[in-house]
Amino acid sequence: MGQEDLILHLTEVRKRLIIVFAWFLVMLCAGLYLSSDILLYLKTQPMIGEIKWNVFSFTDGLMIYMKCAFLFALLFTVPVMLYQLWAFVRPGLTEAESKSALPYIPVAFALFIIGVAFSYWVVFPMMVRFMMRMNQTIGAVETYGIDRYFGFLFQIVFPMAIAFELPVILLFLTKIGLLTPERLKMSRKYAYIALTITGSCISPPDMVSHLSVTVPLLLLFEISALASNWQWRAMRQGRLENS
């Protein structure tokens, strides 16, 4: 690569980063405007009953407000960032590769949203109810700080949301040839162990709750494996037709 090509690539990277950063700032402003409504909506959800949020320092409310705005901006910046990444590498792809890579962006974003919804509406209430029962069992007075509440919420929601990206990851690895049906079959037992450990770490330590988290993760892996095998066969068929 010559110096001129390097300068062109760096200029293109700078352009893409400026677009992503500008969009992030726009979403951050929107998040700052909507944070109070978002937080009040989360507080009034009846799924875990009424929980009084307490602050133990003057900055607790401000920090949660800023974190909410930042996470809102980050969430809606992810698809723009993925699109800019695709636009940057598109000149080095064939037309077929370019068209096949573009659908990964909305699919990845949709799966992330589904993971957030599942963990928030299913996993998080189970965890909170279990912890509240434990606190009541030992006769503790329940006083919940807003900072700890949201820290606990993010600790559960985001690992599950990332786990829901598994289909996109497997399909992408299959697309670039790093994952084959044989390798996937060999790694299935290790994937089961990893997903079972993940489910046990983010679910209450009772059988029903553990199964309600782990089983969807295992089903998600199997669906991803089926999609990966289908894509591999389609790729092989395409190579045979072109040869």
UniProtKB/TrEMBL annotation:
Predominant location category: membrane
Keywords: Cell membrane, Membrane, Protein transport, Translocation, Transmembrane, Transmembrane helix, Transport
Subcellular location: Cell membrane; Membrane
Matching InterPro entries: Sec-indep_translocase_CS, TatC
Family to which this protein belongs: Belongs to the TatC family.
UniProt-listed PANTHER family: SEC-INDEPENDENT PROTEIN TRANSLOCASE PROTEIN TATC, SEC-INDEPENDENT PROTEIN TRANSLOCASE PROTEIN TATC, CHLOROPLASTIC-RELATED
NCBIfam families, per the entry: tatC (TIGR00945)
Record's protein name: Sec-independent protein translocase protein TatC
Lineage per the UniProt record: Bacteria, Bacillati, Bacillota, Bacilli, Bacillales
